[in-house]
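[audit] Reproducing an earlier prediction to check determinism. Same input, same settings, fresh worker. If the tokens differ from the archived copy the diff job will pick it up downstream; this log only records the rerun itself.
[audit] input (295 residues):
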Amino acid sequence: MRIVLLGAPGSGKGTQAKLLVEKYKIPQFSTGDLLRAAVAAGTELGKKAKAAMDAGQLVADDVVLGMIQERLATPDAKGGFILDGFPRNIPQAQALDAMLARVGQPLQLALLVDVDIEVLMKRLTGRRTCGTCGAIYNVYYTPSKVPGKCDKCGGTLQHRSDDNETTVRNRLKVYEEQTAPLVSYYKAQGKLRTARGVGSISDIFKAISDIIEAQMRPLAAVGVGMSAAKPAAPAKASSAKTVAAAAKAAPKKAVKKAVKAKKAAPKKAVKKAVKAKKAAPKKAVKKAVKAKKKK
């Protein structure tokens, strides 16, 4: 299954992507991970990406698309993939579609994890992270037992500077302006499906899995149909043999018919002549009688 995940910051799509990877055994393509891996490996695309990042610029779309295309060629991606974080706008989506069409792996599903703005605000502004073990809490939804302290290791919980209300609202505004139009883009293609990203992680994951399973069933049915059609080849061969046999038999039938007709012709001619001979005297007598009466 080839999937692109859509959702605003704080929607939880990253968490759901990891669960999908575990369940369906297909890789997650996160643009951040791809960039870091390419830079670390020192590939040609990685060098271009590093130059852009070092200059404080955004990495060009063609570089990101090149990395995605390279990743598609790896064995673990043959059964599908999950794209997370790309595309972010319509031009990127169009370029992605064109590239995937070239390699024969078009997207099959655009899955939106939908969450209301006010819920997103609480998720992002209420986030707290343990500076020691990295455990994540939320003061609104999953607070620690002791305020400011990690339940697991007792470390201090930290509040990221960019998790303030002003910054979060700006991030969500950028999402609404640039990325949200992708919903309409994929809806027009008939590929968009939506899961509500509210509730427990397991409940959200079940809703997402149900959507994916519903999409996979028709594809599986097509696959079964194709595999079932293959054994039909011998039937064609058998049919060809029948035609060939009929072709060989045709001349024989024609000869038999001609011989039969030839044999039958003299018999018919004799019968006709005998019948005419018998009929001639009768006709002559009738004719003479008729002439005598007239006199």
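[audit] rerun output stored. Observation attached for the diff report: Residues 224-244 have pLDDT under 50 and may be disordered.
[audit] end
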